[in-house]
Design a protein that fits this description.
alpha/beta; TIM Barrel; 305 residues; homodimer
Chain lengths: 305, 305
């Protein structure tokens, strides 16, 4: 029966997007232990860390050591966020399987987040593509603020589609549209995803959603309806962008897996063992996590007991 | 432009479903003031209180006085939950516009919630229909545990559809399917709603959803897709059934209105003034409310400032 279920590719972003705004710096040992446990969950991808300025994101300054010490599970892609050729070189040296690039659809946010304009970001991505060309590493691209920006307001679809095209021109075959501050809503999410899928049939389009206004899973549902099969999520709903006003938690992995499995999709992730990881993560960050299923428990239909 | 938007009928249930499980008894004056402010929001319906045993639900023992003292806004239906002919007689004496009946699709839950079996509930409903026949009051019916029951497990669709039919046979033209403990999921919600709409074209089918597992708005989205246009919601996401293990908050009105208005629906409710009611409700119940938009603020697209 499992073989007939449609596979959804999940990327666990808690170790990067989740930890980057936590006030507590999680010790490297704890990160490695958590990632090794996440590896056993069966994720398609785990975003391990980011190779950016240690002064800008001190919580992830130990990226190279984390990559060196984790046990890699065959079948899971271990990715690293990079924003510059220098960061990419460090990520390649650390043998990241995938370099995750990020540009913002909002010039104002790109300047706040990356310290440069969008064109300059893509100049750097072109260098990164050259650096990665003769390595086993693949590239994926994210487009922050794809569904609206608190600094700039509405973002035209054409601008987002143009950025997908610029990634595609660099050979990036996997692009994630990010609702960085949770401004997207179902009809908009469906329309932009549908346009992107139609215009770029060779690019795998994914979604990175935040639950700032409670629309995370409704937006996933809308995206599933137009054929999106890749989603980022964060254990315990941690996360947010330190350079975007009002950004709050990513969609919660446990709640997403619960919904998808009930709907008959195969996420590859086992919900019970995933929920069992919450206390270790709570200890690491020193506060309670978000999410509904972690508190209420899964529906009896998914309960193994 | 407003004229072209599809209208969604919202029922505000915070004063009944919300307050019934609060440990604090909200004073009658406060209830009347809150309902009068809710009346100005433009809801299609407001569930004012319930005429049930005061010992079972002491928080709502003042139902008659509340009905006597509220100012009624033309265009809003003021409903009362009743479970027995005796309660119905009291609600009619209080001039409730609508008597809201409730039966559970689960025999075990119907016994816990109503103290009788399903057939006995319907015997009472037949008496209530006779009582109401020569009054201006209308009847609506709810079916608790339509999407699963923590006591009985899965609930067959046919059982729920059979109960819709029993209501219809009594002349009830408005039936709400309730996910009392948040066990429903989008594909299931869509399938059961679609079957009910198809089999009962003369009955207005609505949904009463709880957000226990974070699926509330995703379930609304799924239901919109098959043509459901009536939803219950609770300001601040308060609510739950005192006789159902694990029941937690109703879907939050602010978050629902925010999603629907962004999607181009007309709820009749003004989001900003609705959000402005939260502090008064928080004071009344003595604790923080649920909901995302009340904390994060609406998207700039909906912000009037």
């Amino acid at each position: 029966m499992t073989a007939t279920r449609k596979r959804i590719e999940l990327t666990e972003v808690v170790m990067r997007d989740g930890l980057q705004i936590e006030p507590a710096i999680v010790p490297t040992d704890t990160k490695v232990a958590l990632i090794d446990q996440l590896s056993e969950q069966g994720y398609a991808r785990i975003e391990v860390s980011s190779f950016v300025s240690a002064s800008a994101v001190p919580a992830l300054a130990d990226a190279a050591e984390v990559f060196a010490r984790i046990r890699r599970r065959p079948g899971t892609v271990y990715s690293a966020l990079v924003m510059t050729p220098r960061g990419a070189a460090r990520a390649l040296a650390a043998q990241a399987d995938e370099l995750s690039l990020v540009v913002s659809a909002s010039e104002a946010h790109n300047r706040a987040n990356a310290g440069r304009d969008i064109d300059t970001s893509f100049d750097g991505f072109a260098e990164i593509a050259l650096l990665a060309r003769d390595t086993p590493a693949t590239l994926c691209g994210a487009i922050a603020m794809s569904f609206g920006c608190p600094l700039e307001g509405d973002i035209p679809f054409e601008r987002v589609l143009g950025l997908v095209g610029r990634y595609a021109n660099l050979g990036v075959r996997s692009v994630s549209l990010a609702d960085t501050t949770g401004m997207g809503y179902p009809t908009q999410i469906a329309a932009l995803c549908e346009a992107a899928l139609r215009r770029f049939p060779d690019v795998r389009i994914g979604l990175h959603l935040h639950d700032t206004r409670g629309l995370g899973l409704a937006n996933v549902h809308a995206a599933l309806g137009v054929g999106i099969e890749r989603f980022d999520a964060s254990l315990g709903g941690l996360g947010g962008c330190p350079f975007a006003p009002g950004a709050s938690g990513n969609i919660c992995t446990e709640d997403l897996v619960h919904m998808l499995e009930l709907m008959g999709y195969d996420t590859g992730v086992d919900l019970d063992t995933l929920i069992a990881l919450r206390p270790a993560l709570e200890n690491a960050v020193g506060h309670a996590l978000h999410g509904h299923v972690g508190r209420a428990g899964p529906c009896h239909r998914l309960a193994r007991a």
